[in-house]
Amino acid sequence: MKTRRDVFQAIADPTRRAILLLLASQAMTAGAIASNFDTARPTVSKHLQILTECELLKQEQNGREVHYQLNPDKMKAVDDFLAPFRKMWDDRFNKLESLMKSYKNKK
Amino acid sequence: MEQKTKIIAEDGKQELIITREFDLPVELLFKAYDKAELVEQWMGTKVLKLENKKHGSYVYETSHNGNVVFRAHGTIHEFVHNQKIIRTFEMENMPIGAQLEFLEFEKLTADTSKLTIQIIYRSEQHRAEQLKLPFSYGINMAHNKLQEILNEFK
């Protein structure tokens, strides 16, 4: 029986997040993706299957090869897509806050 | 730890809203934007020019190992102490283009304040490029990490 997958379950796994990061720059074959990880090839295939089922990835037939690529529409739907951007600003503002606190104490 | 910074990016819009509350009096929060030597410290970039006044302009530049990796500039349209800054901002050599920024500084209590930044992009696509940016930095970092690991095997 196939279980229903949701995107949040999909991105909860660090390997799957790493796969999404890899594919953000270019479409790749399953073999090329797997060569970036120490895990066994079937494990990577399983991750790809989950990411495809919840539509974060799209498959594209390219001659005899199947390339995986990000589905940007679905990625946008995931609030977590904003997370790196929010983190960048949060880190910056945390720095500002601690900097100005010490600035105040110096006065 | 929970992040205090909120980002609102509504679908179908070409703007972003960033809000953040600070454990700082509004005067100190504003000063962090006003003084070049402070901007340098919290933004982590060199400030080549910062004329915080109406019709003034500014230039930021960051170098890494002698190479310029980030350069941004803009002009100031309005600069009201402890209240607001209206300015343009553009990162050079990026597909994001010029953006218009409204920064509002608000006093909450004597010791706390709130900053609201509204950023308007040329189009929704330009906004998307901006949101992708830290994501791509993440990829570069992942690649660098990979390279480091590979180098160890040599």
TrEMBL record, chain A:
<dbReference type="InterPro" id="IPR036388">
    <property type="entry name" value="WH-like_DNA-bd_sf"/>
</dbReference>
<feature type="domain" description="HTH arsR-type">
    <location>
        <begin position="1"/>
        <end position="90"/>
    </location>
</feature>
<dbReference type="InterPro" id="IPR011991">
    <property type="entry name" value="ArsR-like_HTH"/>
</dbReference>
<dbReference type="GO" id="GO:0003677">
    <property type="term" value="F:DNA binding"/>
</dbReference>
<dbReference type="Pfam" id="PF12840">
    <property type="entry name" value="HTH_20"/>
</dbReference>
<protein>
    <submittedName>
        <fullName>ArsR family transcriptional regulator</fullName>
    </submittedName>
</protein>
<dbReference type="InterPro" id="IPR051081">
    <property type="entry name" value="HTH_MetalResp_TranReg"/>
</dbReference>
<keyword id="KW-0804">Transcription</keyword>
<keyword id="KW-0238">DNA-binding</keyword>
<dbReference type="InterPro" id="IPR001845">
    <property type="entry name" value="HTH_ArsR_DNA-bd_dom"/>
</dbReference>
<dbReference type="InterPro" id="IPR036390">
    <property type="entry name" value="WH_DNA-bd_sf"/>
</dbReference>
<dbReference type="GO" id="GO:0003700">
    <property type="term" value="F:DNA-binding transcription factor activity"/>
</dbReference>
<keyword id="KW-0805">Transcription regulation</keyword>
